[in-house]
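Proteins fold reproducibly. Next comes a concrete instance:

***
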Amino acid sequence: MRPLRRRALGSLLLLVALVTPAGCASLPPARQVTDMALIAGRWQGQITFARGSYQLFYLTIEPDGRVVASWDGVTRYGKVTLEGPRTRVGFYIWSGSLDYLEGGGQRVILMKEDFGAWDAIVRPLS
Protein backbone atom coordinates (compact mmCIF):
# COMPACT_ATOMS: atom_id res chain seq x y z
CA MET A 1 0.00 0.00 0.00
CA ARG A 2 1.37 3.42 -0.91
CA PRO A 3 2.39 5.69 2.03
CA LEU A 4 -0.20 8.37 1.19
CA ARG A 5 -2.97 5.78 1.01
CA ARG A 6 -1.82 4.19 4.27
CA ARG A 7 -1.82 7.60 5.97
CA ALA A 8 -5.31 8.41 4.65
CA LEU A 9 -6.61 5.03 5.81
CA GLY A 10 -5.02 5.53 9.24
CA SER A 11 -6.57 8.98 9.56
CA LEU A 12 -9.98 7.61 8.55
CA LEU A 13 -9.76 4.83 11.14
CA LEU A 14 -8.76 7.36 13.80
CA LEU A 15 -11.73 9.54 12.93
CA VAL A 16 -14.13 6.60 13.10
CA ALA A 17 -12.72 5.52 16.47
CA LEU A 18 -12.90 9.03 17.91
CA VAL A 19 -16.29 10.00 16.53
CA THR A 20 -18.20 6.81 17.27
CA PRO A 21 -18.08 7.14 21.09
CA ALA A 22 -19.33 10.73 20.76
CA GLY A 23 -22.67 9.62 19.39
CA CYS A 24 -21.72 9.59 15.71
CA ALA A 25 -21.12 13.35 15.63
CA SER A 26 -19.88 14.48 12.25
CA LEU A 27 -16.70 16.46 11.77
CA PRO A 28 -16.55 19.73 9.86
CA PRO A 29 -14.69 20.03 6.54
CA ALA A 30 -10.93 20.53 6.37
CA ARG A 31 -9.59 24.05 5.97
CA GLN A 32 -6.07 25.03 4.95
CA VAL A 33 -4.22 26.97 7.64
CA THR A 34 -2.97 30.12 5.94
CA ASP A 35 -2.42 32.12 9.12
CA MET A 36 -1.41 30.85 12.55
CA ALA A 37 -4.21 33.02 14.03
CA LEU A 38 -6.72 30.42 12.75
CA ILE A 39 -5.44 27.81 15.20
CA ALA A 40 -3.87 29.92 17.98
CA GLY A 41 -5.43 29.35 21.38
CA ARG A 42 -6.06 26.70 24.01
CA TRP A 43 -7.43 23.31 22.97
CA GLN A 44 -8.55 20.16 24.79
CA GLY A 45 -9.18 16.63 23.62
CA GLN A 46 -7.71 13.15 23.58
CA ILE A 47 -4.43 11.54 22.63
CA THR A 48 -3.65 7.87 22.14
CA PHE A 49 -0.25 6.20 21.82
CA ALA A 50 0.22 3.15 19.60
CA ARG A 51 -3.52 2.46 19.59
CA GLY A 52 -3.59 2.30 23.39
CA SER A 53 -6.16 3.88 25.67
CA TYR A 54 -7.15 7.52 25.28
CA GLN A 55 -5.75 10.15 27.62
CA LEU A 56 -6.90 13.70 28.31
CA PHE A 57 -4.78 16.05 26.19
CA TYR A 58 -4.25 19.83 26.32
CA LEU A 59 -2.71 21.88 23.55
CA THR A 60 -1.78 25.57 23.50
CA ILE A 61 -0.77 27.16 20.20
CA GLU A 62 0.73 30.65 20.28
CA PRO A 63 0.33 33.11 17.37
CA ASP A 64 4.05 32.71 16.55
CA GLY A 65 3.64 28.91 16.22
CA ARG A 66 5.09 27.88 19.57
CA VAL A 67 3.12 24.98 21.01
CA VAL A 68 2.79 23.34 24.41
CA ALA A 69 1.19 19.92 24.74
CA SER A 70 0.43 18.14 27.99
CA TRP A 71 -1.10 14.81 28.99
CA ASP A 72 -0.81 12.45 31.97
CA GLY A 73 1.74 14.64 33.78
CA VAL A 74 3.92 15.02 30.67
CA THR A 75 4.59 18.38 28.99
CA ARG A 76 6.22 18.80 25.58
CA TYR A 77 7.20 22.02 23.81
CA GLY A 78 7.36 22.38 20.09
CA LYS A 79 6.50 24.38 17.00
CA VAL A 80 3.72 24.47 14.41
CA THR A 81 4.87 25.39 10.91
CA LEU A 82 3.02 26.23 7.73
CA GLU A 83 4.67 24.42 4.81
CA GLY A 84 2.68 25.47 1.77
CA PRO A 85 -0.63 23.64 1.85
CA ARG A 86 0.49 21.45 4.78
CA THR A 87 0.58 22.29 8.46
CA ARG A 88 3.20 20.45 10.50
CA VAL A 89 3.85 20.09 14.21
CA GLY A 90 7.15 19.14 15.82
CA PHE A 91 7.99 18.16 19.41
CA TYR A 92 11.50 17.23 20.53
CA ILE A 93 11.71 13.75 18.91
CA TRP A 94 8.30 13.68 17.14
CA SER A 95 6.93 15.38 14.09
CA GLY A 96 3.63 15.00 12.35
CA SER A 97 0.69 16.45 10.47
CA LEU A 98 -1.82 18.91 11.83
CA ASP A 99 -5.19 19.11 10.09
CA TYR A 100 -7.62 21.91 10.88
CA LEU A 101 -11.34 21.39 10.39
CA GLU A 102 -13.91 24.17 10.61
CA GLY A 103 -17.58 24.56 9.80
CA GLY A 104 -21.07 24.43 11.26
CA GLY A 105 -19.88 26.23 14.38
CA GLN A 106 -17.22 23.57 15.06
CA ARG A 107 -13.44 23.83 15.13
CA VAL A 108 -11.30 20.70 15.37
CA ILE A 109 -7.59 19.92 15.13
CA LEU A 110 -6.41 16.42 14.21
CA MET A 111 -2.75 15.57 14.76
CA LYS A 112 -0.95 12.42 13.67
CA GLU A 113 2.69 11.58 14.30
CA ASP A 114 4.56 10.66 11.10
CA PHE A 115 5.34 7.07 12.15
CA GLY A 116 2.08 6.34 13.97
CA ALA A 117 3.38 6.73 17.53
CA TRP A 118 0.37 8.86 18.51
CA ASP A 119 -2.83 10.51 17.28
CA ALA A 120 -4.76 13.38 18.86
CA ILE A 121 -8.03 15.22 18.37
CA VAL A 122 -8.77 18.51 20.10
CA ARG A 123 -11.45 21.19 20.19
CA PRO A 124 -11.23 24.73 21.58
CA LEU A 125 -11.08 24.84 25.37
CA SER A 126 -14.12 26.66 26.67
User: Anything to note?
Assistant: Residues 12-24 have pLDDT under 50 and may be disordered. The chain has one domain: 28-124.
